[in-house]
Amino acid sequence: LARGMYVQARRQLHNLPAWDVALLLESSPPKARAIIWQLVDADEHGDILEELSEEVQKSVIRQMAPEKLAAATEGMDTDDLAYVLRGLPEQVYQEVLKSMDEQDRHRAEKALSYEDETAGSMMNTDTITLRPDVTIDVVMRYLRLKGELPEATDKLYVVNRDDQFIGEISISRLVTVDPSKLVNDVMEADVQSIPVDMDETEVAKLFERQDWISAPVVDAENHLLGRITIDDVVDIIREDAQHSMLSMAGLDDDEDTFAPVWKSTRRRSVWLAVNLVTALLAAAVSSMFEDILAQMAILAILNTIVPSMGGIAGSQTLTLVIRGMALGHIGPSNQRWLIGKELAIGALNGVIWALLIAAVVAAWKQDLVIGGIIAFAMMANLLAAGLAGVTVPLILKKFDIDPALAGGVILTTVTDVVGIFAFLGTATLLLG
Amino acid sequence: LARGMYVQARRQLHNLPAWDVALLLESSPPKARAIIWQLVDADEHGDILEELSEEVQKSVIRQMAPEKLAAATEGMDTDDLAYVLRGLPEQVYQEVLKSMDEQDRHRAEKALSYEDETAGSMMNTDTITLRPDVTIDVVMRYLRLKGELPEATDKLYVVNRDDQFIGEISISRLVTVDPSKLVNDVMEADVQSIPVDMDETEVAKLFERQDWISAPVVDAENHLLGRITIDDVVDIIREDAQHSMLSMAGLDDDEDTFAPVWKSTRRRSVWLAVNLVTALLAAAVSSMFEDILAQMAILAILNTIVPSMGGIAGSQTLTLVIRGMALGHIGPSNQRWLIGKELAIGALNGVIWALLIAAVVAAWKQDLVIGGIIAFAMMANLLAAGLAGVTVPLILKKFDIDPALAGGVILTTVTDVVGIFAFLGTATLLLG
To answer: ipTM more than 0.90?
Structure first.
């Protein structure tokens, strides 16, 4: 770019809201990303960093000097601050901490003391707390003095002398009750709070279930530590929902579409390696039937149809079971019913597609026997697909392995092996 | 179940919150669902219906008499009411409308006049509106008279005499400003409102982007029609995120894990039919090389490896591109870069896996020529996979076809055909 265009680009970026600059960065190849970041005003760095996904954030932070990074994190919400700092290499992290002022450093260290992906790492400390023994009128005067409330403040929290959480008042209640009443009399005391070590996915489920806008976070002794707001929960909900889709293709949640080539290649090669083993296994099974394959080329031609249909039917079942498990719909009480159901679908589908493929093959290759053999193999494989589609994710979950990640490979291995065995094995028995 | 157990079950269900009963219904096979529904108190029917997914809701509604359904919908939020009514067959719908009282019927007809999956179908009409020329003090007295505000009310809307939206005041601002000021002076006038015909996915994106808790909905003349709240948006965000995963397996968004066998079989058979055509196409390609397959059984054994690797590599790219398109990261400006990147990854992966498979095959079958042939085919197919992984979804989107639904099938067809052609074609040229 020419010198004049830089100035123009800088002005345009300056007028864009942080969210749009973040989107622009997410959508740009590595080189363009670096240039855009240099053109952005330094005082907007913090706001933009908050909006970036983990991978892109990392790639941008890498080119910043520690003191600039420290400046950018000034005034960030606690949860965003922790999120940014967590991504730093140890040495940079120490330098950034050194460049921070006392208060921010303390806040950062506190935020980082909570485990990642828990309520503690999602929460903000910008709560407004009240004592139970003051009147609503006093509260109103206090708020007016304060001037502005933190974003997404829908509730004020009531704590006792030891800072223990004892109840809450929604702001909409505050404006509708008699101002002469005591906080203690109008507050809601029977409120569910979030333990600081609760997993973020559980937190998201609670929010969805209770339609919360914000919720208090407490430690084991019920001390109020902060609050979680819906905007941070929305990110978790979307990430969790996308997780299964990405995992099923062997991709990481944070996979950056515009990452450099070598980095993407390395990440994706793991999955290709696993698949190569699976494909070689299938080839090894075919290899057991080399004699019959050598005699009849038609078997080689038709050999891929049955495994392919099994793979599709199985992954439909697998996808539904994975989603059902994520939504909490599948448990010990209905597993057996579900296995029975998927076996019945497998049988029904088996009959339908067995008859159809037999008809097609008989018509195409004028061979009724091979039509019958492929029909039998189809039947067997669709049954196997239904059974594996339910049981593989259930078993993986028992061993604490992510079914979305490993389920697909195991399933297609089953349907490949069963499909080839059923087809070539039967052919060997009848024709060999 | 014995008579006594029914009573006990009924009591237990009575003590569960609506959300939990909904979860129980979602997790139950059809027969159990019907029994549970009969055991639930009639006055809780409405609350539970609101929480159910579309498919399960339909299956439950089917067993209700129209007048009972009308009773259950009494007092429902407008958007939930519309959601339930939309699912009804025309005749039942008319009967339900007849059983409603005047006011509810009017509300229902109004809600149904907006198109499904737009801002209009998501909104509620429970807004609190203010005039610009009153003081905050008057507003506060009005709210106190009102007594209770609708759920998730974080803002009050300001309208002129013609009910046109002119601004908003957040409740947290209401409690912090000088009560003697006029609404007009403290309201935020420069507020983005949502057009009533905006697509629900766009609405969700706006909420995510602006961190809204609620937002006003207006018609083309800027009349305030209602508001959308974050709890309804969260459902859309989760559904949209899950949509891609389910579509990629040829499943419907509303697919009910516990639907009856025949229904599930019918739904899934569409995808199996499409796949059968694809598999037969691949077989037809193999069939073109019948001569060489008849000569060398080893080709038949190895024939599945290259298509399989291409399918995996291609679907990784496809998954990333589909996600990137959903997040708005991929547009005309970076498409060419992305195609170049995925081709480079394809080439790099091609070299790696070509060398590896050549080594494996050479070691396993003691055949260097076939090792070379499979290496060449691998190289060609991984390049094709990278290219197709980006271009197929882009082309589908141009023709307004959902890439998540059709992308996978087209992609694997490409990788199957290219893989088989490259492997068996080269073998025919060199060895035939």
So the answer is: no
